[in-house]
Amino acid sequence: MKRGLSQTCYVFFSVISNPTRLAILEGLLGQPMNVSQMIERLKQNQSMISHNLRPLLRCGFIKVERRGKERIYSLNGDTVEHLFKIVENHSRKYCPTMGVCPQRRTK
């Protein structure tokens, strides 16, 4: 592993390990949304959504576009969609129970 990459990985995975942030990312897979739409979809209050959007924006997981007074959030399609596909493929192969990985036998 390249020098310093472990710190980058730690920050990267720390940002997306939050359940609310993952739910935001998953919600944005389908379509761009504004905060009101996220509140309705995720059943979270506005401050919780806004608080969790900041690190996703700061680290480039999502993008924001102004449309008048509205802010529309969307996924960074260059990386996040690919990341979800990697996780989906890995879980299909190694975690068939969807979230509970079986113990591997060691010899």
Describe it.
Helices cover about 55% and strands about 10% of the residues. The protein is mainly alpha-helical. It has one domain (about 5-85): Winged helix-like DNA-binding domain superfamily/Winged helix DNA-binding domain (Arc Repressor Mutant, subunit A, Orthogonal Bundle), CATH 1.10.10.10. A two-stranded antiparallel sheet has the order 1-2. A hairpin with a 2-residue loop joins strand 1 and strand 2. The longest helix is centred in the C-terminal third of the chain and has 15 residues, at about 80-95. It is globular and about 55 Å long.
User: What is the number of helices?
Assistant: 5
Give the class-level CATH name. Mainly Alpha
Mean pLDDT equals 89
Sheet having the most strands: 2 strands, antiparallel
CATH homologous superfamily designation: Winged helix-like DNA-binding domain superfamily/Winged helix DNA-binding domain
Helix content: 55-70%
Cα shape: globular
Strand content: 5-15%
Give the H and E element order. HHHHEEH
What's the number of extended β-strand segments?
A: 2
CATH fold-level assignment:
Arc Repressor Mutant, subunit A
Kindly report how far apart the N and C termini lie.
27 Å
Q: Which structural class should the secondary elements be placed in?
A: mainly alpha
Radius of gyration: 16 Å
**Which strands sit side by side, in order, in the main sheet?**
1-2
Architecture, CATH level 2? Orthogonal Bundle
Count of domain modules: 1
Low-confidence stretches: none
